[in-house]
């Protein structure tokens, strides 16, 4: 049962979480290469760079979310959020295979993907989220999930359509599975998270979730290529 005050608190803190998500969308919109991706005008190497870097963080989504959920259960805290984390771990399972398939259809074999250098933001993202999952405040991972799924809901499906319409990347129609699938799924996922997180009144967990949302908002734009098509960084 929630009091009037708790309801107001829930609304207020969710508005702050939405603010982080909108901030991430705004940040990618002004980043040159991210803007080109979501506008459908990115070149082949830039798109391959994006998919490779995404692979190197998305491959850890299931263990990060799942371990956070299991630890929260063991701690006996927030059973509904523990269930949500475990459910989301299941939802993310295998998404890295969409990336490998999209990359293979672009002529980029798995060995090249595995050997590619990671952007520092990718390592920071993976390290931070494993830290909160395994030994920080485990609910924090939901802040990361929220802003990334919000970005997906607003930009991923449109990006897939625009990339296909532009058709400037060879074989692009077989290489947008990751973007297209997330655009289709993540609208419902964001709505579900907002509904469940709106009931969270614990201020320590709210702060941890907001902190991870902010960290991901800051890191994510830096997974993209710097400087655009004229300053390629070799991927190996
Ligand atoms: Fe995913
Ligand atoms: Fe999702």
Question: What's the quick description here?
Answer:
Helices cover 74% and strands 0% of the residues. By secondary structure, the protein is mainly alpha-helical. The longest helix is centred in the N-terminal third of the chain and has 27 residues, at 4-30.
Topology:
Layout: H1 4-30, H2 32-39, H3 44-58, H4 61-75, H5 79-92, H6 95-105, H7 110-115, H8 120-134, H9 141-166, H10 177-197, H11 203-219
Bound molecules: fe (ii) ion (FE2) (2 copies).
Explain what you see:
This protein has 236 residues and is an all-alpha fold. The chain has helices spanning 4-30, 32-39, 44-58, 61-75, 79-92, 95-105, 110-115, 120-134, 141-166, 177-197, 203-219. Helix 4 runs antiparallel to helix 5. 46% of the residues are buried. One fe (ii) ion binds at residues 58, 92, 95, 182.
């Amino acid at each position: 049962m929630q009091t009037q005050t708790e309801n107001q608190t829930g609304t207020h803190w969710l508005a702050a979480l939405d603010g982080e998500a909108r901030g991430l969308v705004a940040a990618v919109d002004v980043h040159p290469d991210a803007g080109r991706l979501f506008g459908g005008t990115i070149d082949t190497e830039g798109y391959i760079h994006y998919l490779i870097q995404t692979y190197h963080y998305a491959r850890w989504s299931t263990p990060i979310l799942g371990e956070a959920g299991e630890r929260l259960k063991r701690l006996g805290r927030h059973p509904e959020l523990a269930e949500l984390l475990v459910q989301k771990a299941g939802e993310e399972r295998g998404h890295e295979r969409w990336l490998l398939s999209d990359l293979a259809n672009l002529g980029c074999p798995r060995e090249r993907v595995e050997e590619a250098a990671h952007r520092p933001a990718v390592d920071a993202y993976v390290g931070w989220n494993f830290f909160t999952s395994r030994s920080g405040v485990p609910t924090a991972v939901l802040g990361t999930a929220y802003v990334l799924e919000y970005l997906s809901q607003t930009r991923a499906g449109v990006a897939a359509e625009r990339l296909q319409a532009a058709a400037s990347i060879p074989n692009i129609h077989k290489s947008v599975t990751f973007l297209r699938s997330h655009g289709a799924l993540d609208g419902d996922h964001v709505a579900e998270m907002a509904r469940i997180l709106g009931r969270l009144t614990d201020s320590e967990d709210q702060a941890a979730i907001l902190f991870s949302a902010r960290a991901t908002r800051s890191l994510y734009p830096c997974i993209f290529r710097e400087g655009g098509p004229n300053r390629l960084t070799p991927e190996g």
